[in-house]
Automatic annotation (TrEMBL):
The lineage of its organism: Bacteria, Pseudomonadati, Bacteroidota, Flavobacteriia, Flavobacteriales. Pfam families: BT_3657-like_N. InterPro entries: BT_3657-like_N, GH43_arabinanases, Glyco_hydro_beta-prop_sf, Sialidase_sf. Residues 38-131 form the Arabinosidase BT-3657-like N-terminal domain. One of its GO terms (molecular function) is hydrolase activity. Keywords: Hydrolase. This is Glycoside hydrolase family 43 protein.
Amino acid sequence: MKKGLLLILLILIFSCKDQKGKNVSVGQDIQEQQENEQDSVYLFTSFREPADEGLYLAYSDDGYHWKNLGGPYLKPNVGESKIMRDPSVEKGPDGTYHMVWTTEWQGGNGFGHASTKDFINWSEAEYIPAMAHESDVVNVWAPELFYDKDRDRFIILWASTIPYRFEKGQEEEKNNHRMYFTTTKDFKKFTDTQLFMNAGFSMIDCVIVKRGKDDYVLVIKDNTRPNRNLRVAFGSDPLGPYRNISKPFTGFKTEGPTVIQQDGKYIIYYDHYGEKSFGAVETENFHQFTNISDKIELPEGHKHGTITRISGKVLDGLISKSKELK
């Protein structure tokens, strides 16, 4: 009997090591760990001006150097303008990637949505009229996805202008943005749209970063005319409130942030549209930032998007497809 118990104990001990020999704490989600090991390649979504062609992609093994996969992989066919800007992608718990994007530069009351497993075969694109209840809304810009694992829901943020609704500085009434949000579990039913953040100035391109339990960072574009740069704020819930807004950590005319963890640090990529290039900073704590723009390489024409992870199998399919698109 004692030998039997000892054997069971030994089996449990060895089963708590992964294939690479790393210790795994009892109770850890093994399935999630295996999925993370398989998702070994970074994928960067983007578009190309004038934004009428659709989704472009690039991939990277190391998070710094990106290889062009070309495009378009999904052509824009919703919204009056039939454009695709700022494609944001997030992977759901079932392995499906959801993407939302800007469909209008001016006008419109919603954003585009489609889903995929491999970035080649897509669901039918649909238009989500998230600001239909605001008759005076000027725009719906840069919808950004965040999967809130703790509550099993997707949070969608975007910037909209509603003239004469909020205080303003040097902004025109039709360029005085605030952030809004809705949530969904299935992209069929959505919660009522609500104001996400009003920090007293025009803001767009907000990205939620989870650092740990009850520990979130919000990367913000201060869109006021004198600034147009990136800052961060801090909160204990993904929906805020976010406080302690930092000083700018990027220069004039920067936007479109997306964040990854690499080499024990966070890398914040951003679209330096004033110089028609892409930049990046590195940080350990979101208080001190080091410019590493000289360490990154991106395809020419790359624009505002987000970074996710894909398996080697998905990448193989995209490489084959990219040859057809040339």
